[in-house]
Amino acid sequence: MVASSTPLNRHSHQLLQQNFSVTFQYQVHFTEQLFDSNNPLLANVVAADSETLPHKMMVIADEGVLANHPHLSSQIENYCHHYGDVLKLTTAVIAVPGGEAIKNNSNWVEAWQQKMDESSLCRHSFVIAIGGGAVLDAVGYAAATAHRGIRLIRVPTTVLAQNDAGVGVKNGINAFAKKNFLGTFSPPYAVLNDSAFLHTLDDRNWRGGIAEAIKVSLIKDVAFFEQLETLAGAIALREMSAMQMAIYRSAELHLQHIARNGDPFEMGSSRPLDFGHWAAHRLEHLTHYRLNHGEAVAIGIALDSTYSYLMGLLPERELQRIYDTLQTLKFTLYVPELSHYLDDPQHPNSLFIGLKEFQEHLGGQLTVMLLAGIGRGVEVHQVNLERYREAVGILKNQSFTL
Fold it and tell me: What's the distance, Cα to Cα, between the start and end of the chain in Å?
């Protein structure tokens, strides 16, 4: 018997519906002296999958980190030799420039992927990225797009990377004069925070990273902000115990948001964790990255907090507490680029182009996070440019700007 089917007419259609879910799991570890052979953490993390060992591994590291830790490459080689039943280093440690420059040139991604190919890495191999947020972003993008995903272990070496950029699920590089225009949502296999790397940070990078902790405290946790407020002086004086507390709680809040907010891959139009970031990303570009990310975020926080006050959302006393905390941490809260072309929002060098880019990055309606009080974020879908101009003027005239 021959099966027959009814042909489709001009206006009919057929449908196959596909639904599935995928559970992502990764751990964020806090340790010290990660590559000391007496510290088995890395080997245990790699061996935990119970697959055939050893696993091939490629290490890409920020050249600034390697300069500050001149024995790091040999430590990594010795570590892999010591745990040779688990780890097989396929090539010498690859040194790359740190900072935003690494994200502005896609040739780096292609060069790393060529090395991955030459080393015969597979989807059960590991790429270890050692560096600040920019290096982690770029190397993560390369790993996520090679073989549609080689396992990535992040080893963040800056405050900002350990408390925010390194613990999330995003990777990317800059393109077409836009921040993170090319990228992926690809969770790491693991994140290994080593506090020993923080000792060699300069003051700008030590201070800059804490801006992300302030950000998440302001929108999610008043008690955490109060801790930061109390410890700001100690953090400014580089007391490690105070910084470790701030890093741990900030990372914890970021992870909780990713897991519980219901939109880890940003399918909607809301991006709560980017409080202060629409202006920050724009200022990084306008200053040709003279401002690092944390410094730009601090200005963005001050701007959106001031705007929240002007719109009647944030009490003046709480705004002053935010100013005081940022001042104690020695952040600059005004740069000339804030004021350029404010009366011409369409000018390519206007701060307000950042609002358009912020909306375009997600699509849908504009969604900006503001403050209805410390620890209480509130989203709005329209902004008053005149009030933002006023907010810029307030920051320009504040006595604490440096």
Answer: 87
